[in-house]
Design goal:
alpha+beta; single chain; 17 helices; 28% helix; 5-stranded mixed sheet; globular; disordered N terminus
């Protein structure tokens, strides 16, 4: 979908000033070499905090690893579930998946899969069932620190038939039974490290201590060089079994400041800017107005959900009245129209209008600063001193907000939010960090004091177990496993998540989804902001890149990217 140009020679800070004023009070072998297309240099804004496939959920990691690995199954660019590492997608219809009854009368599932017969790690070791089993053992271990342990723990057994074929025994029937997020880990490298000290595994994995080891890759490329915070260099993997990649070298350069990212593109230091981790839409529209003749700019509506996580352990934010006041006090429609040209619609809950399970009938919070002020009065923040609300104890209504340092668009949005909240007497301080620190330490270990602004990117119909279920709150005891960083806990939400997963009938599942979205919008564990469109800025000679608009990175199809005159 093409977006209209709305920014001309206007700089973003002018738009911010206007906004603030608005607010009143498979086939070919790649064993030889790449096709000889030279080097492709990609600019992104974040450096991965880890390269382990299962630990933490940072998009920068997924972007890089998509060039070195392949998932068993994934959604493609047309939002269809496909096999990548597997040979045939298991379904109930083709008999590779089946519902069975356990000894205690519970309905469970068996899902049979075959690994691609030619899949081989970069050191020549075949990818086998042993690698699947290790990924499962790491994922389900309570001390391993993986981001989403529940999906591993529900697998009760992996039945090995031969080196390449296995059956998953799953403890429940789910509608998404063939979305296999299990993955593989090189057992001949990682098993010894894991078994020596599972609780220390996240700090000792070869993915971080020996990341250029060819045995960690079985995709079209492997990592050959990296410098923390600076760059990652990849070259063709000689054991890759698929279509030969076209480029002899991929350089992923990390430039955290988006203004510098744009400057590097114009100077030729980088060839393209990643859509997943590049410019926001306001910056891309302005760039297109100035330099659009020299680049192809692809805009993709996506399931990217920009929001503000709230630390519900904070006694101020534990009060739902305060949370509602905060969202009533911000004009998200004006932010969308003035900063994003009206192309990033306001988010009212956690399911995108692009998703088939989106519910329109949820509580909505239109901009109403008077309502915000009344709610804060009711919550006990009714004494104004020097423009800041205080409670009866004389404590100020003061909060902090964090985001990724150097992201110009997010930093400008922060300034707008800060000014709008100030007008209702909420004192908000900005405290940003580099992405690898914010995601790798502060958010993942729930170290933020109040609010942190970032985005979730999900797959279609992605059940929010890891972000909303009470079992997914990261703690020191579970080695910071899970992504429920707010600490949200609601028994009915837990029930709905379980029920959604188990419901095979689409319409019945839609009703459960609708109730979940209503509770989410009512309780506000996060402040929903907007649904992002994703801009890819690529040279006119680069062909074959197809944005997905969902969790699967474009680089999962990196071998299709090519240079054409």
């Amino acid at each position: 979908m093409r977006l209209r140009v709305w920014l001309r020679s206007v700089v973003l800070t002018a738009a911010v000033a206007a906004l603030v004023a608005l607010a009143p009070a498979g086939g070919n072998s790649a064993k030889a070499q790449a096709a000889g297309a030279g080097t492709l240099t990609i600019g992104i804004t974040q450096y991965p905090s880890t390269l382990h496939p299962q630990i933490e959920s940072m998009l920068a990691k997924s972007y890089v690893l998509a060039m070195t690995r392949r998932p068993l199954t994934t959604y493609d660019q047309d939002w269809q579930l496909i096999c990548m590492l597997c040979v045939e997608l298991p379904t109930l219809e083709n008999g590779l998946a089946e519902v069975v009854e356990s000894d205690n009368g519970e309905k469970t599932m068996r899902v049979r899969m075959e690994i691609h017969p030619q899949a081989t790690w970069g050191d020549g070791t075949p990818v086998t069932v042993d690698d699947v089993i290790l990924a499962w053992e790491v994922g389900k271990h309570p001390k391993s620190g993986v981001a989403a342990g529940e999906q591993f723990r529900r697998i009760t057994d992996i039945e090995r038939h031969d080196d390449k074929t296995f059956t998953l025994h799953v403890d429940r029937v789910t509608f998404d039974y063939n979305e296999i997020a299990l993955g593989v880990l090189p057992a001949h490298i990682e098993r010894e490290i894991f078994e020596a000290a599972p609780a220390e595994y996240r700090n000792r994995t070869a993915y971080d201590t020996d990341p250029t080891n060819p045995a960690l890759a079985f995709g079209p490329y492997r990592i050959v060089e990296l410098a923390t915070g600076s760059h990652i260099i990849l070259e063709p993997n000689p054991t890759w079994y698929g279509q030969a990649p076209h480029f002899e070298r991929i350089v992923v350069r990390v430039i955290e400041n988006t203004a510098a990212l744009e400057a590097n593109l114009l100077s030729g230091s980088i060839d393209m800017i990643s859509g997943e981790l590049g410019l926001k839409i306001d910056q891309a529209l302005a760039f297109e107005e100035r330099h659009g003749d020299g680049f192809d700019i692809i805009y993709k509506p996506s399931l990217t959900y920009e929001h503000i996580d709230l630390m519900l352990d904070n006694p101020i934010l534990a009060d739902r009245q305060v949370r509602r006041a905060l969202i009533y006090a911000i004009d998200r429609t004006a932010i969308n129209e003035r900063l994003f040209g009206g192309e990033q619609p306001v988010a009212h809950a956690n399911v995108s209008p692009l998703d088939v399970m989106h519910a329109e009938d949820v509580p909505k919070y239109v901009y109403d600063p008077e309502k915000a002020a009344a709610l804060l009065d009711e919550a006990g923040w009714d004494q104004m001193k020097r423009g800041v609300r205080h409670n009866a104890k004389g404590e100020p209504l003061r909060l902090s907000i964090m985001t990724t340092a150097g992201d110009r668009s997010r930093e400008q949005v922060q300034q707008v939010l800060q000014a709008m909240w100030k007008r209702v007497g909420v004192d908000v301080r900005i405290d940003n960090e580099p992405a690898r620190v914010l995601f790798g330490e502060t958010i993942s270990k729930r170290k933020f004091d109040a609010m942190t602004m970032y985005a979730w990117l999900s797959a279609p119909q992605s059940v929010p177990r890891t972000t909303l279920h009470s079992d997914s709150i990261p703690t020191a005891e579970n080695n910071w496993s899970g992504q429920n960083y707010t600490g949200f806990s609601d028994p009915r939400v837990d029930e709905l998540i379980d029920a959604i997963e188990r419901e095979l009938d689409t319409e019945d599942r839609r009703k459960l989804w609708a109730e979940l979205q209503k509770i989410y919008a009512r309780e506000l564990p996060v402040l929903p902001l907007y649904w992002r469109a994703t801009p890819f800025i690529v040279p006119k000679w680069l062909k074959g890149l197809r944005p997905t608009g969902h969790l699967a990175s474009t680089t999962l199809w990196i071998e299709e990217w090519r240079r054409e005159p």
